[in-house]
Amino acid sequence: MSGRSELGRKPDRSVVDTAERDAVLDEALIAHVGLIAGAGGEGDGAHPVVIPMLCARLGDRLLLHGSPASRLLRTAKAGVEVCVTVTLLDGLVLARSAFHHSMNYRSVVVFGTATEVTDHDEKVAALNRLTDHIVPGRMEAIRPHTDTEVRGTTVLSLPLDEWSMKVRSGPPIDDDEDMDAPAWAGVLPLGVAVAEPLPDPLMPERQVPPHVADWSRGRQG
């Protein structure tokens, strides 16, 4: 930990339990990766960039992947520090005044320097983890990665050494003078809703496999 990972506002909402951090990272599908592009000497000058990316945790590392042509990945693997944020929205908090409306959420921010995974076996393991993180059990149902696909993908590993987590939960916090207001107040819970799977029209008719039919994520709304 360092000063930049300490919460300056509402430190009482800070969470330092790594198991709770891991639970958020394991539930999330999307991370927003921020860095200063051009800081490694590329491009027309340094400027901030934030890109949404698929992510997955593997032990005490966060995995990110994409095309070798990605400027963000090229910059990140050059040793530029990154900031990765993952946020799960659990509910809308409706207060008796607009000022006190809020959201219930769980958020993790990770700081550090990502390194490229270059060992073939480690890279395959990372790609398998990314795939099974998105849809658990998927790798058992599809063919393995080809060598061409492995070479054509950049995988970055970010150590979970420097991080912070912040959580807001519970009902609205209203001013005493507003407590008798006639407005409805409370929490509108939110979650990930899963619709009926849509088969590829080019695929022969097949039964939806359990790992697809039973897919769920986090707290269901």
Automatic annotation (TrEMBL):
InterPro entries: Pyridox_Oxase-rel, Split_barrel_FMN-bd. Residues 200-221 are annotated as: Disordered. It holds the Pfam family Pyridox_ox_2. This is Pyridoxamine 5'-phosphate oxidase putative domain-containing protein. It comes from marine metagenome.
